[in-house]
User: Fold these one by one.
Assistant:
Number 1:
Amino acid sequence: MGDPTDAWPPLSLVHLAGAAREEGHACEVVDALALGLGIDEVERVVQGLRPDVLCVTAATPGFPAALELCRRVRATGCTTVIGGVHASFMYPEFLPAGDVDFAVVGEGEETLPELLHCLAAGGDPARVAGVAFALGNRVIRTAARPRLAALDPLPKAWDLLPVSRYSWSGRPGARLGAIVSSRGCPRRCASCCPSAQYDGAWRTRSVDAVAYELAQLRREQGVDVVGFYDPAPTADAHRFARLIGRILELDLGLEIAIWSSVPDVLRDEAVLPTWRAAGVTHVGICRDPAEDRLEGPERVRALSDGRRAVHALRAAGIACETSFWLGFPDETAATVEETLGRALAWDPDTARFPLLTPLPYTRAWRTYGSHVVTRDYRLYNQRDPIVKPRDMELHEVAEASERCSGRFLAGRPSRVAPGDVRRAGPWLVHPVESAVPDRLDTEPPAGSPEDAPVRPVPRQ
Ligand code: B12
Ligand code: SF4
């Protein structure tokens, strides 16, 4: 749901600073993304704060910059700690270079305060579970830290963040907040980062705790729209129905953007109007890249289900966006057209065409790793091509993604351009139910998505 013009709150820092503060450590948070700070500016801010310990979070594409910041700050005598999914898996790769003192492996809410205590007391970090560090020419990984036994309540430090800065192009002018209602995802897709992060485990928070936190965001932080950052809040139908019921009771007047999946949306088709009544205005549909390489009946079924899910959401007044993946090793001009045809047939409000970006710590790496042409992690951003197709040049892949976005948008005026603040968001894009003709229930032929046979989709 991200867009370059957005400023999304860094929820990891909200929880980590909250956890460290609860254990008596004074904290400051610098949200470089929201403040638009480059590395030199962040360095200056950090030097001005003169911290004992600098803690940094970064996903894979931001990791080289995070390491560079740690390297510079460490040179002034400050201890540096880095965490997040990339750090959790890749610490043997970067720790030997000596840019950063400690990597936190896994969730940080317990590990970070314990590490900070240990450092302040001059203790032995090898006794803190969930940490890795370099010692001479060896990398030490301490005992594994069990996942948090309970996710309620999660510590928070919203007061340390520039909350008035957070906004989403989907709702211009509104204050944006964030929450997780669960961690991980039960679906275990091969390319998936959150699934790898939690090893396929899915843990939920209690409905009451989530509802209470939503009320706090509304009343204490003045938030108008909340992004659920967990990828699978709807995975358990019963639990999500209870959460929707609680939100309806509270009547907070919040708008809510969530992630979901085609099976969850179709399962809940009959109750989608209650999602909408509770404030759910935007659903991002999570799709593993493998879904763009299905064959035979599975492919036909996936297309028809995807279309039905989009229609069902639209009928309930909920906007949806999803990604269609390009840049596979077997990519050709024809497969690009097929993927575009699939996107046009689904007809979500927003379609993105990210490029296949296998991560070294996911199962997909076994399939695609040998086709990855660079270990420059700055390019692992799903926009720069890092997989070389056998029959296409890298620049052709990037151009294909842009072309697909342009052609998708050209098809229908009510489609939403990512970043188009005038039309973006669910509140303007649903003039009538099924503005899109029921047109396809099979894959359109390569090269001519608009010329595919017209066959009505049976109503369920
Ligand atoms: C919100 C979000 C964003 C926001 C980030 C806002 C922000 N300032 O943080 C925005 C929209 C900006 C964004 C942008 C991008 N994102 Co994003 N994003 C997410 C999302 C939905 C939630 C992340 C989150 O906050 N989770 C909740 C927190 C609490 O969990 P956490 O971060 O894992 O933190 C815990 C632990 O990891 C650990 N920890 C984390 N950091 C640290 C640091 C320290 C010091 C310690 C001790 C511990 C620790 O403790 C935390 C609490 O337990 C995830 C998908 C997902 N559901 O996870 C994708 C995700 C992280 N994004 C992803 C991608 C690809 C991108 C983009 C490249 C997209 C694009 N093409 O532009 C950009 C890259 C931005 C950048 N510069 O790096 C991928 C990352 C894959 C990877 N490993 O590289 C993910 C996993 C989505 C996906 N399935 O592909 N994203
Ligand atoms: S549905 Fe999405 S979040 Fe869940 S495992 Fe698949 S790709 Fe990951």
Number 2:
Amino acid sequence: MDNVIRTLFFTDVHVSGRNPRARKDNFLNTVLDKLNQVVDLSIQKNCDFVLFGGDLFDSPNVSNAVAGKIAEIFKKFNRIIGIAGNHDLFGNNIDNIKSTQLGLFEKAGLIELLFRGKKTIICKNDLKVQITATPSHFGIDEEDIEQDYVVSEVDKDVDKSIHIIHGMLMEKEINPHMKVVTIDRICHTKADLTLSGHYHRGFSPVNVDGKYFANPGSLSRVSADINEINRKVGVLYIEISKNNIKLEFIPLRQKKGEDVLDRSHIEKNLFREIKVEEFMREIKVASTIQSTDIKNIVRKIASNKELDKSVIDYALTKLSLAEENLREIGD
Ligand SMILES: [Mn+2]
């Protein structure tokens, strides 16, 4: 009797019909090739299903021509379970998922989307696995880290529990200005395996008292950062049995970073970016508002003046609708 559940986890594909500024190749073709490799691997490894960590699309309304190409590939997965990333959403508003391409994929049966507070149970012979998830949402990594990241309840008859989140989970903080959640803050979770996306560089799986935390990194390299040029792109292969979880990073075929990524715009803009950064720092010092994100500013102002929460929510909804309209024009 086969009592092992086999799966793959991949994340942050960032499908786009437009070439990112840093790419020298045809980015869409490269991404399609990566996704096809994931399909092939899932067949070769006999996966029962695959897991996806968010940011399938670089924007929530990529063209139908582009989304259609992804749909063709997704049909080949025997089962794919995943979450929305911030790039899949308008204004990072998870409540509006139905108006996005990823939402359409769900309705068309191309992906099973998971939402906060819902459980999926997968059984294979007498092995039972629970999957929970937190898609990206406005306020992730800032507001309710415990509720977003930590699994507090696992049914008694469940053998292993997996939690997927599109959040900035890291081993340690690398930059005091970046909102991150460090593993030590959430390692009391009851999930045996916590999978995260969002942080494109990823990290090697971390084991804390038998609980694993992993992020294999983005499936595509959208920036020409030195680390991205040298990074191996890949997926995480996962084997789950009653009393064990095995993780293996499997690199995909990829071109040499120097051949597909162009750093010239970075070198050219370095001086300007340093100037902008200095300017932003001065603004931040001069005001009590720490954030340059428009929605955070609304919230900070609102919290200063103790406005009613419904007023703030209304303002945020309006902002996300405005962003949606802007994107429709821009894309
Ligand atoms: Mn991403």
